[in-house]
Write a structure and sequence with these properties.
With 335 residues, this protein is α/β, with parallel strands linked by helices. It is built from 13 helices and 9 strands. The chain has one domain: D-Maltodextrin-Binding Protein, domain 2, CATH 3.40.190.
Length: 335
């Protein structure tokens, strides 16, 4: 009798476990960076997110790094269609939520801590809500791709006057074209995959990217000069399908939100580390690196911002208010 009772209880327990397993949900987390958490900002963010969520809930997190599920545009589309639950992207965000493009206005953020203060405050919350309404994707946290800087193979750049006549590869994005025009350079939109050849053959004299990207892809070997002007601070958006988020119970939602905040900060830390290492490394390998003074940065800002803001306001229409809202947030955070 005891054996029968035990067997029945064991069977019930097994059935209960099976039912629980069937109900367990899986989050697919995708990004385009390498998987290595020690060198990759998105790789680090994904890894810590997975560890926290799996450690504190019954949810399973599957990581898909290095563009294994597609490029950034494809990833946000998958998230909107519910095929991939969590994605971490940068430039693709402004394509589906144009207001996010205000973050790319050149010389907007004077430092990373200032950008963090703005994005983690009221402005970042308001932008996240706006983009949720526009796209159905919830911004769980902001990470960091890093400040973009100019390099070239002709001469040292200290002020916009030094950019006159130089051809710079830019992303095929109008904002970057307007920025380089405003600074006096000649913008040349070229696909990323064609950049090394364009630099090697002299199709362009220079390019612009975060330090880590420049170093990790060997672009410093094709360029002699780097100017740490930090013209654009590129943010990462850690996004989740809101439909999926709402399917989670409140306890799971709380853990996912916490994990995302930690992941965003983890990505920022790895990005800061790779920038510091990259600056030292490119100099050790012969690149000349110049840090503009505050007065010189002001010259870059005065030359680039008006044209970009005018163009962006025309593109945003009613959403052009986000330009002023960002300026106000930066002013408040700087006080």
């Amino acid at each position: 009798m005891r054996l029968t009772t035990f067997t029945a209880a064991a069977t019930a327990a097994i059935l209960a476990l099976g039912a629980a397993a069937a109900q367990a949900q899986t989050l697919r987390f995708a990004h385009v960076d390498p998987a290595d958490w020690q060198t990759s900002k998105k790789g680090a963010a994904g890894e810590i997110f997975k560890q926290i969520v799996e450690g504190e809930t019954d949810l399973t997190v599957e990581l898909f790094p290095a563009g294994s599920l597609g490029n950034e545009d494809e990833l946000v589309g998958q998230a909107q269609d519910g095929l991939t639950q969590v994605v971490m992207v940068s430039g693709a965000m402004s394509k589906i939520c144009p207001a996010a493009g205000v973050l790319d206005i050149p010389y907007t953020f004077s430092s990373a801590p200032l950008a963090w203060k703005v994005l983690d405050g009221e402005f970042g919350d308001a932008l996240a809500q706006h983009c949720l309404d526009e796209t159905g994707l919830r911004t769980l946290a902001y990470g960091e791709t890093g400040f973009r800087n100019f390099t070239n193979n002709v001469r040292e750049i200290r002020t916009p006057a030094d950019m006159e006549g130089l051809k710079f590869r830019v992303q095929p994005i109008p904002l970057y074209v307007e920025m380089v025009k405003g600074l006096g350079g000649e913008p040349t939109p070229i696909a990323w995959t064609e950049l090394p050849n364009a630099l090697s053959t002299g199709v362009v004299d220079g390019q612009e990217n975060p330090v880590g990207v420049i170093y990790n892809n060997g672009l410093h070997k094709l360029q002699k000069y780097m100017t740490l002007d930090g013209h654009v601070y590129a943010a990462d958006f850690l996004l989740i399908s809101d439909e999926f988020f709402q399917s989670l119970d409140p306890a799971e939602q709380a853990v996912v939100e916490k994990a995302a905040k930690v992941a965003g900060n983890m990505g920022r830390s790895i990005q800061q580390y790779s920038t510091a290492v990259g600056i030292n490394a490119v100099q050790d390998e012969g690149m000349q690196v110049y840090s503009p003074t505050d007065e010189e940065i002001a010259q870059f800002r005065d030359a680039a911002q008006p044209a970009v803001k005018e163009w962006l306001a025309g593109e945003l229409g009613d959403d052009a208010q986000w330009i002023d809202r960002l300026d106000s947030a930066i002013g408040a955070a700087s006080e």
